[in-house]
Amino acid sequence: SGPRPPPRAKAAVPEGWRRLERLLDEYSTADGLEPARRQRLIAAIREEARIAGLEDDLGLAASVSAAEAIPQIDRFVCDLKEGQFADGLHVFGRGTCSEAEKAALLDALAGRRVAPGPSGSPYRGRSDVLPTGRNLFAVDPRAVPTPSAHAQGVKLAEELLRRHLQDHGDWPKGLVVDLWGSSTMRTAGEDFAMALHLVGIAPRWDHGSGRVSGYDIIAPAELGRPRIDVTLRVSGLFRDVFSGLAQLFEAATEALAERGDEADENPYRPRIARVFGPRPGHYGAGIASIPDVFTAEAREAAGEAWLSASSWAIAADGEIRPDRAGIETRLATADSFVHTQDLPETDLLLAADYAAHEAGIAAAAGRLGAKVPSLYHLDATRPDQPHARSLTEEISRVVRARAANPAWIAGMMRHGFRGAAEISATLEHMAAFAHLAGAVPPHLFDLYYDATLGNDEVRAFMARENPAALAAIETCFTRLHDASLWQTRRNSIAAALQEAS
Q: Entry's PANTHER family (predicted)?
C-alpha cells in the first residue's frame, strides 16, 4: 500500500525575478503603447532574462525574435508561480490517513485481510485513492488504454508536436518514446495512447468488456499531418505487465508496412522492430548511479549500459529476442526523445531513474557517435494543461521552483538525517544529467550551491544531522568543477571549492 504523499507547498517566483515579473505584467497590457516604449519593455525583459540565465535555459539566442521569445519567458515565469512541491517527507503514522495506514499495517502483519483500494495520485484528481493504507490494485492490462486515457493521449501527442514544431519548424523524423509500467498503471495508458496517435493509430474497444480488441488505422487525410516514425523503449515492468500493448504496437506498425501509401507518407514501410526493452528478467536502464569520476570513458560506459539494457525487441507474437543492431539503428536515426511524467508528487531530480532514462539515451547516442536527439520532458501532471519542455528547461524549472527554494530546504531540515540525504541526492541527480547529457547550465549549479553549501545554516544542519551527506555534496560539487561540468563565474564559490579540496 502506498502512503498518502506529503502536503504540497506553492512555489514562488525567486526574489531576484520580481522586476522581470513586473515587466512581463506591464508588457501583457502594452498593446496600445507607442512603439518606442514597447521596444524598451522588450529590451528590458530580455536583459532581465539574460541576467537570470533564463535565455540559456530556454535556448533563446539573441537572434530569436521578441514575438517568439517573450511568450516563452512569460510562460516559464507563470509555470514557476503555479508550481508546487512536497512540503517535507511522509512520516508513517502522522498526518491525514495515519490511523488507516497503521491499522492496515497491523492487519497485514497479523495475516488479516487488508481492504482493497485503487492506485494513483490524489494530486492528479484521484480522490478515490483516499484513504491510503489499502491493498492497492491497478488496472486490467487488457483494458489499457481506456477511452479517457486515449483522449488524454491525443492531447499529449498534440502538445509534443506543437513544441517540436516551435523548436525545429518541422515534424519529428524519428521519435523514441520512453514508457514506464508504473505510469501506465496510474494513467491507464495515456502515454502509450500518445504513441499510438503519433503513429496514426486508434485503439478499438470491445463494447461489452471495455477491453482493447484491436486498432484502427487513421487515414493521412484525417490525421492532417505525416505519421511520426516512433520507437518505443519500454521498461521491464511494462514488458511484463503490458506485453499485450507491445504486441499491439508491433502488429499495427506491421499492418502499416503493408499499406500502399507513398514512402514519404509512411515511414513504416520497412518492416523492422520498433519496441525495445531490457532482457527478460532484467529491469532498469542499466545505469545504477553516478560514476566516481566524470570522464568521457565513464559517460561512454553509461551509454553502453543503456544500449545493453534496451537491446531486446518484442515482436507482434510476443517473442522477445536480442536485437542490438535494431536499437542502434533506431537510435542513430532518431531526432527526438520524450519521457512523460504524470506524478505531481515528484520531479526529475528526486529519483535516479529519470537521469538513467532521459540522459542515458544521450550517452548512448554519444557511444554510437550519433547526433544526440532533442530531449523532451512532457509534463502531464495537470491533465488539463500538458506542457512539453526541453530537458534543460525542465531541470531549470525544478531547480528554481523546488531544489534551490529555501522553503523546500526548510521542509527537509525538519527531517534530520533523511532530509539531509534528500538535499545531497538532488545534487547527485543534477550531476548525472550534466555528465550524461550536458543538460545543466552552470548557473543552476550556482543556485543550488548558494542554497546548500553557501548557506551557513544549511551547512551546519547537514554537518550535525548527516556528516556523510555533507561530505557527499562537497565531493560532488568539487568533482563537477574539476570536470568542467560546472564552471562558476563566482569568485567566492571558486575560492570555497579550492579551500575545500
A: AEROBIC COBALTOCHELATASE SUBUNIT COBN, MAGNESIUM-CHELATASE SUBUNIT CHLH, CHLOROPLASTIC
